[in-house]
Design brief:
The complex is a heterodimer of chains A (about 400) and B (about 400). In chain A, about 50% of the residues lie in helices and about 20% in strands. Chain A contains 13 helices and twelve strands. In chain A, a hairpin with a 5-residue loop joins β6 and β7. Chain A is elongated and about 95 Å long. By secondary structure, chain B is an alpha+beta fold. Chain B starts with a helix and ends with a helix. Classes of the chains: A alpha+beta (about 400), B alpha+beta (about 400). Chains A and B meet through α2, β2, β3 and α9 of A and α2, α9 and α10 of B.
Chain lengths: ~400, ~400
């Protein structure tokens, strides 16, 4: 029979100061770790939902993003050649390709009451955009034909000021044309939710553009995206294309690098926590050699003792982990869980929300438990190897 | 002397614990040093921007919208004497990459006639300036980029711009900017780019710049023209947003990952972790030595002696941890290939020796905090009660 859990729990309570301090160390590490996981998760989710493998983003060759790409109407028309590749609208019979124009508008952030501004993407679209970007769902009205109206992604509406339904925002090259917000749209949490959408022709006119920025197109189910991209880049068309997911991954490379640095630093923190846990467990084991000898005498095996010490370490980690996750949740509730990042190539802002999901809590606590096991293994083996006679004699 | 020996003996009584506590302090100090180095780099970068007495001008509605090149003359006309506005330089971003190489380049076309005066921190020598003025295809390459790409002065290189006309542009490298603070950016003449745009025969927009930088004579001139410039273009199609260069750069940095804020929070957390971890170890030490401390007191040693012993031990453990935690990154980023690492915005990553000293002081502060409570307990310890508890 293994040692009862209450034995481990009471051991921790006896060494209150050490237990509290070790739990605090673990809580801080887990708090930071879970925030980082939340951030990474929010960003990945935002990018992965954009990853429709059947949607291609066509750009001008040599351009790095929609922001610096220009596709004149003549070049756009060349895409009509892709009869075999582009899916067709069942009702109209038109190719599912959406010419789009991207510009930016500087808008105040709501989270700091407008103290700072963000560069928000304004996308000029046609009706076909809603057929190509299948995850886009209208939540309210759509801009009326010929009207100076726009719809706003739900993340943009939350995080940037002046985007409530009925508000008017100034767009156009000189920022002198008022567009009324008539509705919202969602995009399964993807990057499009950080944008403002309006009628392409009117916005192109307002921004004095005569070229599209990009073309989003939907491939037929049996078409290999790589082959379609080769055709687009070939001599007949001479544009370039990426799948939607590849495109968004590329645009947020800079964010990935920052996350890598933070992950490394949190990893270093975890190692420091492991040392602290090991210290605690060594002290706990060293102070109980007589107790372990007694346990061995009454029939508990070395394996029982090893498991018992490991369980104590796990209890510490679990407790610290739970407090850390709660603290992280409280921090997000207090400071706000909205974040936005600047895509280095797009020059636009990607807005998202950090949520502490059960998965993140599980990973954070699971990871610290592994760290705890790592820290406790040597002292636990020492406990398991307790020599009964020697320990009792020393005591 | 006796006391020092005693502290040393205490330190080596449980070597494993001392080493692990030192390590639990050293690792957070590593994070502290790296974070502080990045924050310091950003601060240095921003302070340098502030020292340059430059204004940055963008299109009011968005940083991405370009401004017409005609704005330059209008801005210059605000100071006919040329003593308050020293130089107005238009910059055109073309990004770019080498053919068949996805690595993005940071390439900027500039007004060649005002560039040298507007950006004196590039410290170009006479020969470089002459070559720059003489050769329309001149390209100056930040030295780290040049090293990375294996580019040398005198070489002809081709860059594919990320903006119209999207066709390869050939340049002559005239400098690798050995004395410049910017070690990444590539600079070329905007007039050459305009010539290419005209030669394309397509309807690409010409005569546009991404930003203007205005070199002013004094801080007062900066404040004056910051408002004057925006006032001059107010109500036009090309309204401007003028800010001092430090504000402009800071806005750009905070939009990326808000590194200064996030790293400050992270390093504060890590210092907290170190304090708690060390405090934990010191309280375990004191608990293990209750009888010894009680005996010392019974023999006539004062409570202050016990306090000093524990504090000294804590300071020593944390100080050693701090030394290891700061010297590690210092050596790595000063004497190994890591010193050439490029960090966006701050470009060169540098750990000054003064930062190591600062970090050791932080570690000693950690030691002081960690030892405070256990040593206080030792100071207040009642001999009889302590000895009775042990029985």
């Amino acid at each position: 029979m293994a040692l009862p859990l209450s034995y481990n729990w009471r051991n921790l309570l006896i060494r209150r100061t050490t237990t509290v301090l070790t739990v605090l160390v673990i809580a801080v590490v887990v708090g930071v770790f879970s925030w980082m996981l939340g951030f990474r998760g929010a960003l990945s989710r935002s990018l992965s939902v954009a990853g429709d493998p059947r949607t291609l983003i066509v750009l001008r060759q040599a351009s790095t993003s929609e922001t610096n790409s220009a596709i004149p109407p003549d070049d756009y028309n060349k895409l009509t050649q892709l009869n075999e590749e582009i899916a067709v609208d069942d009702q109209t019979g038109d190719q599912l390709k959406s010419p789009e124009m991207i510009v930016q508008v500087s808008l105040p952030r709501t989270r700091d009451l407008g103290a700072t501004n963000a560069n928000v993407a304004v996308r000029g679209v046609t009706n076909s955009a809603f057929a190509v970007h299948r995850n886009v769902k209208l939540l309210g009205a759509k801009p009326a034909d010929g009207a100076m109206e726009v719809i706003v992604g739900v993340q943009a509406a939350k995080q940037f000021a002046g985007l409530a339904i009925g508000d008017t925002i100034n767009l156009g090259y000189g920022g002198n044309r008022g567009y009324r917000v008539v509705g919202y749209f969602s995009a399964d949490g993807g990057p499009l939710e950080s944008e403002i959408w309006g009628p392409a022709t009117m916005l192109m006119n307002a921004y004095m553009r005569n070229a599209y920025s990009s073309v989003a197109l939907r491939l037929k189910d049996n078409v290999d995206p790589a082959a379609a991209i080769r055709r687009i880049e070939g001599p007949g068309i001479e544009l370039t294309a990426r799948t939607e997911s590849e495109y968004w991954q590329e645009q947020t490379k800079n964010i990935g690098m920052y996350l890598m640095i933070v992950t490394f630093l949190v990893g270093v923190m975890c190692i420091a926590a492991a040392f602290s846990i090991a210290n605690t467990m060594f002290a706990s084991v060293a102070g109980r050699s007589r107790e372990f000898a007694m346990l061995r005498t009454i029939g508990f095996t070395g394996r029982h003792l090893l498991t018992s010490v490991m369980i104590e370490s796990l209890l510490l980690c679990f407790l610290g982990g739970a407090i850390g996750c709660l603290a992280c949740g409280a921090w997000l509730a207090l400071v706000g869980n909205t974040k936005d990042m600047f895509g280095q190539s797009t020059f636009t802002t990607l807005a998202f929300e950090i949520h502490l999901t059960p998965l993140i809590v599980g990973i954070a606590i699971g990871a610290i438990c592994l760290v705890g096991l790592g820290g406790a293994i040597v002292p636990a083996r020492r406990a398991a190897r307790t020599q009964v006679v020697t320990a009792l004699r020393e005591a | 002397m006796l006391r020092l020996t005693y502290v040393y003996r205490n330190l080596t009584r449980n070597t494993r614990r001392s080493v692990m506590t030192s390590a639990a302090v050293a690792l957070p100090i590593v994070i502290f040093v790296l974070s502080t180095a990045v924050i310091d780099g950003i601060t240095r970068f921003l302070d340098n921007s502030a020292r340059q007495l430059r204004l940055a001008i963008t299109q009011k509605t968005s940083i991405v919208n370009p401004l017409p090149e005609g704005h330059r003359r209008k801005i210059e006309s605000l100071d006919p004497t040329g003593t308050r506005i020293l130089a107005v330089c238009g910059l055109r971003w073309i990004g770019g990459q080498r053919e068949n190489d996805p690595m993005p380049l940071s390439t900027l076309g500039v007004d060649h006639d005002t560039f040298v005066e507007a950006f004196p921190e590039h410290r170009l020598d006479r020969e470089e300036i002459d070559a720059w003025q003489r050769d329309k295809q001149a390209l100056m390459v930040g030295r780290n980029t040049a090293t990375q790409l294996g580019w040398k002065v005198g070489q002809r290189v081709t860059i594919m711009p990320s903006v119209p006309p999207y066709t390869p542009i050939e340049f002559h490298i005239i400098s690798t900017m050995e004395k410049a603070e910017d070690v990444v950016t590539l600079w070329f003449r905007r007039d050459y780019f305009e010539e290419i745009l005209k030669g394309e025969g397509k309807e690409y927009p010409e005569g546009l710049v991404s930003f203007y930088f205005v070199k002013c004579g004094s801080k007062a001139d900066m404040d004056h023209f910051r408002q004057e410039i925006d006032r001059m273009f107010a109500g036009t199609l090309d309204e401007t947003k003028t800010s001092d260069e430090k504000t402009f750069m800071n806005e750009f940095i905070t939009q990326q990952f808000d590194l200064p804020r996030n790293l400050t929070i992270l390093s504060a957390m890590t210092v907290f972790v170190a304090v708690i971890a060390a405090m934990n170890a010191m309280s375990m030490n004191v608990r293990d030595r209750i009888s010894e401390i009680a005996t010392l007191k019974a023999l006539g040693f004062s409570g202050l002696f016990a306090l000093a012993l524990i504090l000294a031990e804590s300071l020593l453990i944390c100080g050693l941890g701090g030394l290891a935690g700061s010297l590690g990154p210092y050596i790595a980023f000063t004497y190994t290939p890591l010193r050439k690492i490029n960090i966006p915005v701050i470009q060169t990553f540098e750990i000054p020796f003064a930062m190591c000293i600062k970090s050791v002081l932080v570690a000693l502060g950690i030691g002081l905090l960690a030892g405070a409570w256990p040593s206080w307990l030792a100071l207040r310890m009642k001999v009889v009660a302590a000895l009775r508890n042990l029985e």
